[in-house]
UniProtKB/TrEMBL annotation:
Organism of provenance: Acididesulfobacillus acetoxydans
SUPFAM superfamilies assigned to the protein according to its UniProt record, in alphabetical order: YhbC-like, C-terminal domain, YhbC-like, N-terminal domain
Family designation: Belongs to the RimP family.
Protein name: Ribosome maturation factor RimP
Coiled coil found in the keyword field: no
Length: 152
């Protein structure tokens, strides 16, 4: 059910977010304690600010209420993904070339399930990282999650 809500919300709100010059980075629908939360993560070049988050919250709140996609009461939160933004789409692996990333795989690849290295991009269906001085290729379909790391 949670995945169905995420997919329905994504398809409903993504055009609204894009129309305002922003990117919908991620959607989470999660229960914490007794409360349900619908979290939208938005971004833009230079980073989304509080005004962007407020505007999207107002715009999509009404649309979500009208669509009545979510059966139980929930709290809507809209925020920026932060410095360690998740990499969710194939385009992210091209856009953030040269950045330090952390990648977790569904099963071991090259003997490991976690990699931190510099993103070199994507070729075909493989994500390319510079990992411990070597170039490695990770099958995209084996990536469980990935995010940028702050590089000091």
């Amino acid at each position: 059910m949670q995945q169905n809500v995420v997919e329905a919300v994504t398809s409903l709100v993504e055009p609204v977010v894009h129309a305002r010059g922003l990117e919908l980075v991620d959607v989470e629908y999660i229960k914490e304690g007794i409360h349900w939360f619908l979290r939208l993560y938005i971004d833009k070049e230079g980073g989304a600010d509080l005004d962007d988050c407020s505007e999207i919250s107002r715009a999509v709140g009404d649309i979500l209420d009208e669509a009545d996609l979510i059966p139980q009461a929930y709290m809507l939160e809209v925020s920026s993904p932060g410095l360690e933004r998740p990499l969710k789409k194939k385009d992210d692996y091209l856009r953030y070339r040269g950045q330090l990333v952390q990648v977790f795989t569904r099963e071991n690849v090259h003997g490991y399930g976690e990699f931190s290295g510099y993103l070199e991009g994507m070729e075909g269906e493989e994500v390319i990282l510079e990992y411990q001085g070597e170039q490695i290729r990770l099958p995209y379909d084996l990536i469980a999650r990935a995010h940028l790391l702050v590089d000091f």
